[in-house]
Amino acid sequence: MFKNYLKIAWRNLIKRKVFTTINILGLAIGFGSAILIYLFLSYHLSFDNFHHDKDRIYRMATEEHMDNVDYSASVPPAFAKVFRENYAYAEKVAKIVDREGLIIDVERNGSVNKYSKDVIFAEEDFFKIFNFPLTNGDNAISLSAPNTAVITESEALELFGSIEVVGETFILGNNETIEITGVLKDIPNTSFMDYDIFISFENLEEYSEFAHGENWGGITTNLQCFTLLKPNQDIANIETALLELPKEHRPNSKNTHIYKLQPLSEIHLNYEYGGLDPVFLIVFGIIGLFLIAIACINFINISTAQAFYRSKEIGIRKVLGSFKSHLFWQFLSETFLISLIAIVLGIVMAILFLPAFNALFEIQLTMESLVSLRFISFLLWLLVLVSLFSGSYPGILLSRTVPILALKGKLNHNDTGGATTRKVLVVAQFVISISLIVATLVISKQIEYATKTDLGFDKESIVMLEVAETLDSEQFYGLKERLKQVVGVQQVTGCLTSPGGGNTFWDTTVKYNNRPEREEFSISIKVGDEDYLNAFDIPLVAGRNFFKNDSITEMLVNEKFAEKVGASSVDELLGKTLAVNGERVEATIVGVVKDFHDSSFTEEIKPVFIAPTVRWYNELGIKINHLNTAGTLTQLEKEWSQTFSNHIFDYRFLDERVAEQYETEQRYLSLSKVFSGLAIFIGCMGLYGLILFFVGQRKKEVGIRKVLGSNVADILTLFSMDFLKLILIAGAIAVPLAWYFMDIWLQGYTYRTEIHWWYFAISILAVLVLTLITISYQTIKVAMKSPVKSLRTE
């Protein structure tokens, strides 16, 4: 019987080619999008699930409570040793420190090749906590001895041209010979660990102040601590016990630490601690459901509209003995066949667009994922659910047809039912389309607001260069003078990092004007020389700039600092003392600068102080003339290399750094544009299918109206009004919904754009125009035909 159902279904599909094509293409686009979204969600939800003891692995994190709460995916350097030796919760504890841009020299084929590499300094137990196996499958990785390292296969091939490199050596930082003791299998893309070179923690001392680990004050995300807990540990009890550590080691600090255990499964998907925002994945999933829903709505609308034309077929089947169940399953088999063809086309579409999808989101989804048992199960469930959802209602509707009315030709569209349902579903389509367009406009405006609003400093045509080695005052100012002589260079400054988009964020405690207690807030350190303000065009609002100096005796603060200490005006701060960094540094405030955005618009502007000290200059900020950028960069490399001859010249433009802070938002925007377009396209196809039926149904009416004097415009208006009413109803529903959800999204930004009324007007107007275009083609085509043809009775 099922074979017979499929045979009849195939004949019906061939008979109505246009409507079959509309249904299949709409569902195929929905399936293809759903497949890509499924692969994307699976990718992000599978991070770090390949480790043997993943449920017992935790990262130690810190909540810092002052005037607000900050979250750091790190702990003080001394934490690991104390947790390992004084508590009995863990089997293993290990910390790692990452350093970027270290120079590695490798001898190969008689020549020395120089590389700039990001590396991890790891304690020995790190590879006993995590399952990163060697190429021979062995997990016995040892980094206990100094001057040892393990590297990945791909890194071995790049450096040495072979993976058989155990016993080979390279020079680290131009002075240390490091021996490779193992080669790791390439770390999966679905891992929080994206480094390829791991060096013994014993070699860290030259590269970081966190090597000895006796400090309870400073926290940096460059240092992370991991633990493998013993089985059956209560995390809440451990975190409660750790509350005693700050009381013992930080008794007088205003910055209250609360140490947390973050499960390995949450590292990738915890926005507070620097991971991906889970809302991003939820939005992806909802959009995938929207696209499938719109395609199913098209199918239901077209199928219920066809019910009138299939009424005689159903009547004959009933007279010949078919039951309602037979008719229901007959129609469901047609739905299944259409869905099956569509899902095959959807897979083909997904494969074709996978490279572009990977490029857009900078991930590495592969076609191998399409042959997994989990993916096949997903497709089967999707096929069954879509077939049932799309086919059940039309099937029930057709099976209820009264045979005697059908055979006498006395049925009309009201008798076959579905008119109200079609209107409801079309409204739902319009609601989704309008909401997606509104979301696209709001996200676009927020990104524009964040990138084009005055950040309080100049980010255009500024090149950031690394100070590759610690320089004394004479060396630094000598380099600076040479760089200033380069044609095209307008300003040069030395700094710890640039304002906005920098890689180094350093907050510290502060004591103002010899008050007895430290302030309840922390202050951000921005080390820079006397040209810092000029280079980045940061305006003074009170006082003066500090004078050229090698050490901190004078400093600048920002307007936010004045607000935090309760000053009645910025001038009140001038001449007051400020003690920072555990009161080890004390200086006089000589000027106040205008507030500037040092991080993304999701965060509030922080109190800042700016002061000079040569030994902390990590970067050079160079303002250049953009008319000859390439030539200026070539000369800058020449001058820079004279000082740092053993290093690789590398630079970044400041505006690129700032833009990186909004990468997630840019992807939201790309997502909204692509899927809004697809949703509207699928909806328009459904409307086109519906208008074909309605025009066919009302041909004689059109002929009569033309005979009575109606023109093409009158007929087009007649046909359009029903849909225009539905769009207005959809707009009334979509406006509050879209406003509510986009307002929630914008709450994540401390500094945000407004939701303007014209976002909704544009969205509704766009849907109106596209609907009219879709309706007009068939309507005008029928309206221009001779009424004689329309009124002729066969």
Automatic annotation (TrEMBL):
Bilayer-spanning residue ranges: 21-41, 279-302, 327-355, 375-398, 424-443, 674-695, 716-742, 757-777
The membrane topology term of the UniProt record is:
Multi-pass membrane protein
Name of the protein described by the UniProt record: ABC transporter permease
Q: Which organism is it from?
A: Croceitalea rosinachiae
Domain ABC3 transporter permease C-terminal, residue spans: 286-401, 674-787
Q: Where in the cell is it found?
A: Cell membrane
Q: Which residues form the MacB-like periplasmic core domain?
A: 20-242, 431-612
Q: Does the keyword Cytoplasm apply?
A: no
Task: Specify the domain of life of the species encoding this protein.
Answer: Bacteria
- Which UniProt keywords are present, listed alphabetically? Cell membrane, Membrane, Transmembrane, Transmembrane helix
Leader sequence range is none
InterPro entries associated with the record: ABC3_permease_C (IPR003838), MacB_PCD (IPR025857), Macrolide_Exporter_MacB (IPR050250)
Q: Is Nucleus set as a keyword in this record?
A: no
